[in-house]
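Have a close read of this protein, sequence plus structure tokens, and explain what the tokens say about the fold. Thanks in advance:
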Amino acid sequence: MDHAAEAQRTDLMTITRHALNEQGRHPESRGDFTILLSHIVLGCKFVASAVNKAGLAKLIGLAGVTNVQGEEQKKLDVLSNEVFVKALVSSGRTCVLVSEENEEAIFVDAPLRGKYCVCFDPLDGSSNIDCGVSIGTIFGIYMIKEKDNATLEDVLQPGTDMIAAGYCMYGSSCTLVLSTGNGVNGFTLDPSLGEFILTHPNIKIPKKGKIYSVNEGNAQNWDAPTAKFVEKCKFPQDGTSAKSLRYIGSMVADVHRTLLYGGIFLYPADKKSPNGKLRYAVADSLFFMHPRLIIDICIPVGGDMSWYLQYSV
């Protein structure tokens, strides 16, 4: 028996253990962030379970309402939002919650109020729910200066002020990717243990990738530089091989692939949206946490982003 291999398989680095190890590096820490993270993890586990049985539990289909982005909400959207709101409030560590599914920010009642603001999309890519494509949860965490006098102004912080960011992808496996500004780590849910286990430590984006990811259905509305760049991906003039197009339409899945395999994911401004889309950008007046968070937090610490196209409002 290979005892070394057995030891490796039994010495599991769970996401809770990982967070506690990080906490130990900060003697002044009181464990508030670790507690908050544990509630986010709980929400991810609940949603992962709901996604797996969505068809059987009749969670597929429209809920009959739209969200703040004007998108029709799916039943699983609504359930996921309720799960995360309740999990975050019950942690006792949050002050303000901002969800894509709610028109207004949620201010936690004083007795349960903490020092963090959590911005999240409870279920990104929900238009893919009915066909079984990977979807996910996106979240970002800010620190609130005065929890007893929190206002919307406290939420409108630049993405660079986030203390943590991540996403949880629900697909062939359930993977949670987290960054607290000191590297990017991926954890996979082991259903038999009910624990997220570290499977992708210190993720680094490959410096060169063979994939480009963009919705070419919008090509007629692109500006000239964007169209030229995509054209070069398909028909390079320097003798290199053409890049392969991979576009899922679920940001979590597209960005996760880019983190692991390299390449580029872009959602550029166009004639229909000349200033870009807030949901795909981080501006100084950011109100919702959306995909560009991953670029601002995970991408820089996950690898060289000199090749990464960026579009902001």
